[in-house]
Design a protein that fits this description.
The protein is an alpha/beta fold. It has seven helices and seven strands, in the order E-H-E-H-H-E-E-H-E-E-H-E-H-H. Strands 1, 2, 3, 4, 5, 6 and 7 form a seven-stranded mixed beta sheet that branches. The chain is globular and about 50 Å long.
Length: 194
Amino acid sequence: MIILASGSASRRTMLEAAGIAFTAVPPSLDERGLEASLAGAPPPDIALALAEAKAQAVAADRPDALVLGSDSLVVVDGQRFDKPASRQAAEEHLCRFSGRVMELHSAAALVRAGTVVWRHAALARLHVRPLSDAFINHYLDREWPAIGRCVGAFRIEGPGVQLFDAVEGDHFTILGMPLLPVLGALRDQGVLPA
């Protein structure tokens, strides 16, 4: 049995599209507290720690399951950005991202019986085009509040693709989980045919 330790619609959609049978169980975890304890750590390490903590939180009650945790975070000019808590915060994020390169770190971890059996972090670099105030307002009129659940204030599979003029990295990583390495790990764990 595979459990996805996430409430993310994007991660569920990825696994469903790949034909993976799973159950989604959002973890009960103080993510902001864990992030605070990791202040100063490199972004990939923070994303991995959060992915592992999510998987561990769900695995604690399901010791026989293989639990998949995943997390993503955004860094622009060395500053880390969380999900925008308000439309105003989303507007401030987009103004800050305008004309800059967004580093999106996505990580995943598998936990079985309380032990991390696999972990992986991936990086995508998204080049944000210069964004006008008019574009930002129009974009937020269409996308708020849905993007309040999205780090980086965008959904690449929707109008958020208009924020960028170039993308370097794996599409699945941008969606929020390095899916191809996850599928390889699931094969290695014997839960998918090789």
